What we know:
69% of the residues lie in helices and 8% in strands. By secondary structure, it is mainly alpha-helical. The chain has a single domain, classed as Helix Hairpins (Orthogonal Bundle), CATH 1.10.287.4300. A three-stranded mixed β-sheet has the order 1-2-3, with helices on both faces. A hairpin with a 4-residue loop joins strand 1 (147-151) and strand 2. The longest helix has 50 residues, at 2-51. 13% of the residues are buried. Mean pLDDT is 74; it is low at 51-77.
Amino acid sequence: MSDMWRKRVLILTVVLVISGISVVNYRLQNANILETSADFVAYEEQQLKDLKEQLIVGERVVTEEESSESTEVSAAVNEEDYFGEAKAAINMDRNKIISMLTEIIENREVDSESRNKATEQKLQIIEYMNQEKIVENLLKNKGFDEVLILITDNSVNITIDKDTLNKSDIAKILDIVMRETGRPFEQIIIQTKH
C-alpha cells in the first residue's frame, strides 16, 4: 500500500508543479498584454507628435523637400482609399486592444486591480471611438466630406480632405471638436490630407 501511496503523492506533486507553471505563465502573458496596450498608446502618441510637423493651424510654409516627400507618399496611396484604409487600420488596432482587454477583464485569475485598469482602458477607448464618430458626423454636416479623427489621451487629430483650410473652416472644426470632446484648443491638431 505504501507503494500506491507514493505513486499518488508523486502524481499529485507533478500535477501541482504543472499547475503552478501554468499559472505563472498565464500571469506573465497578462502582464505582457497590459504592457503591449500601454506600448500601443505610447506608439499612437508618438505618431501624433510626428504628424504635428505636417499639421495646419493657420498658415504654414511647406519646403520643397516636404513637398516632394508629400507627392511621393500621395502617389503611393490611392486618393480615394486613404480615409477608408486609415479608418479601417485604426479600428482594427483598437479592436485588437479591446479584445485583449476583454480577456483580462473576464479572467478571474487576474487580480482585481489589473481587471479594473483593463476595464478603465476599454471604456476610455470606446468613449474615444464614440466621440470620433459624433465629431465626424457633425463635420460632415458642415460640408467636410471626408474626415479622419483620432482621439487619444493627449490630443485630437483631425485630417480633412481639402487642399487648404481657411479661417472659417478652422473655426467651424475647432468649435465642434471643443464642444463635443471638451478638449482645449492646444490639444486639437488640424491637418489637410494634401
